[in-house]
Amino acid sequence: MVHQHGDEHHIPNEHKRHRPGAWLPADHRVQHEWLGRQVEHVDKHGAKDLIPVLQEFKELIEGNTRIYMYFTEMWEEVPRRAPYDKDPTGKRQIRNYKHMLNMLNHVFTKAPEWTDAAAGVGMVGVPMVAIFDYAMGTPSGHAAFLDPDVNKMLKKVLNEWGKYLKSPESAHVLGHDSEGWFGDSATKDIMSVANAPLKTSHKFEDMFVCDPQAKHYGYKSWDDFFTRPLREGARPVASSEDDSIIANACESKVYNVERDCKLRDRFWIKGQPYSVLDMLGHDALAHKFSGATIYQAFLSALSYHRWHTPVSGKIVRAFVRDGTYFSEPLFEAGIDAAGQKDGDIDVKSISDAQGYLTALATRAVIFIEADNKDIGLMAFIGVGMDEVSTCEITVKEGDHIKKGDELGMFHFGGSSHCLLFRKGVKVDGFPDVGRADNVPVRSQVAVVKSG
Predict the structure, then answer these.
(1) φ and ψ of 416, to 5 deg
(2) What whole-number distance in Å separates Cα of residue 324 and Cα of residue 385?
(3) Could you tell me if residue 104 is inside a domain?
(4) Which pLDDT tens digit goes with each residue over 343-372?
(5) Rounded-to-integer distance, Cα 364 and Cα 319, Å
(6) Which three-class secondary structure string do you get for 192-261?
(7) Which is it for the CA torsion 136, 141, 143, 144, positive or negative?
């Protein structure tokens, strides 16, 4: 995993969580400590009038019997056992949907901050996931976050927060203090992740387009910082004139490589097989990818978040398919030592369940007709996870692009991506699953052989 500042300290097993991409800290106590401070603030100062979009959310919950049941029961279904029953201070945190809305009302007044807490471990900041965390893993929470009406409402909520994250007011977290993104711990971690793939020793200003003499390094908002572009030359294009070399589309860590994928499969089961037709949004071109080879990798919380084309070619189709925002799979119960079901839900967090998310989450789908005839039609999918409310495509259908050119970007939040190659394309040489560092964007990710 990507280590955040302080993750190297000893974490007791009962508090340790595997967090691909480090969107939440490995030490679960840190998330609880952060959320506990937010709860304490809300409880101490009392509920404020909800902002209009959260008032609309409240009216949806209370005005729809089905959704009211989900949002009432999900908090009651959180297991009454460790580690779900208590935070490190011994207090339950989010108590019901009204408390949830008051918490959202509070966190929406500020941009995600870098938090130095609990033995120095930084919480990168996905506040909505921290609030929904346990409820997402309950039967009612699972149903709620798959519900189309709930997801339409969540899109409105996230879009409203996105407006704030693009405003100058959101830049207040880009300071040099312990909760600022240019503080010592945050900068150290960002550059550790950025330098690791190529074993470089760049400073922030060497790697990213910015003005170190300006306030907030010249970034006008939180989103401006999050989508920061790379400096030319920081990530060279692999074999720019050789169309048999596939370039990496995102600065990312390998999640999976799977071949001969079915057009339709049971992506919600424990193995999370890919379901190509669902991944590609049932587009007419999806049927050409029966038996596809799929490469998937996820983006670190501290990484570069723009996408680049893996091949030179023509943009055939490009669209965003709306989907879920906080759905995670519930797999079958575990088996105890006596061979009986233990009653626990086997919950995979959003970042652990990326195969599942390729078919359900909001995602950008781009079909590219490669100049190399041995590749032909291929597809890129940018998968929004957690708080990602915008997958922005910056190319349009009919454009001819050169390998390494920008395709688009993620706006705030956890994210994953896939490359799909049709059956018969001889593509190989993918990076090993489990490799420690990110694969650099625009570097070689695979090779296609002729014939």
Answers:
(1) -140, 165
(2) 9
(3) no
(4) 444 444 455 677 788 888 889 999 999 999
(5) 6
(6) HHHHCCCCCCCCHHHHECCCCCCHHHHCCCHHHHHCCCECCCCCCCCCCCCCCEEECCCCEEEEEEEEEE
(7) negative
Report the pLDDT value the prediction gives residue 112, as an integer from 0 to 100: 81
Count of domains observed in the chain: 1
| Entry field: residues in the chain | 451
C-alpha torsion sign, points 241, 243, 244, 248: positive
**276 assigned to some structural domain:** yes
Domain with 417 in it: 245-448
Residue 376 lies in a domain: yes
Confidence of residue 415 (pLDDT cuts 50, 70, 90): confident
| Amino acid sitting at position 402 | K
Tens digits of residue pLDDT in 292-303:
999 999 887 788
Percent helix, strand and coil across the chain, each rounded to 5? Answer: 30, 20, 45
For residue 26 the two structure tokens come to 């490995």
pLDDT in tens, 311-352: 999 999 999 998 888 888 776 444 333 434 444 444 444 556
The C-alpha atoms of residue 404 and residue 439 are separated, in whole angstroms, by: 14
Entry pTM:
0.86
The CA distance from 235 to 232, in Å, is: 7
Residues 48, 52, 56, 61, Cα dihedral to 10°: -20
Q: Using CA atoms of 353, 354, 357, 362 in order, give the dihedral in degrees to the nearest 10.
A: 130
